[in-house]
Amino acid sequence: MKINREDLEAVLKRDPAIIDESDALNYHAGLHAVAMYRESHELWLRGEYSRARALNYEAHTITGADIHPAARIGKDFFIDHATGVVIGETAVIGDHVSIYQGVTLGGVSFEKGKRHPTVGDRVVIGANATILGNIKIGNNVRVGAGSVVLNDVPDDSTVVGVPGKVVKQGGLKVGHDLEHGDLPDPVRDALAAMESEIRKLRKEIDDLKRK
To answer: Could you tell me the pTM of the whole model?
Structure first.
């Protein structure tokens, strides 16, 4: 298995569980998934479709990630774990992207042609997030864990929820910010506002009873 140095460096920089370079090379399933994808992609580009698909199937069996050989993925790509990751045939992923387990870049159409997402540079996609259709995820975007994204997301944004909504835009830290679990939660905020209103109403009722 040929390991791309930039992908290896991504693991060493972004996975605190890794002991050393040897540990990453031997046991990091995400790194193996990326390496096997890159080999299958080279075969695909040469028109060796059967060999590419065979390697794709082997990678899926070994790592738990299913990355279509035709997908286009940039440099410095990091998958933390690999289980359940699905990246479709016409997906395009930029440079310096990090994704977590269970992420799906899927299609919503049976038509041929571009039907999977395009993901920009320096994007972090949280665990079990689902991004569907021929949509664009901009640069410097964070997608919260468990989100379902069905529409374009502008640059420098944070998107969370089902369906995914932009809850923050601008001012994001550029780089490998992996805090995909520490994101705004609009549902939590709405519940907090409701609880505050209930407390206020109860106080007014108590005041009326005392009169």
So the answer is: 0.78
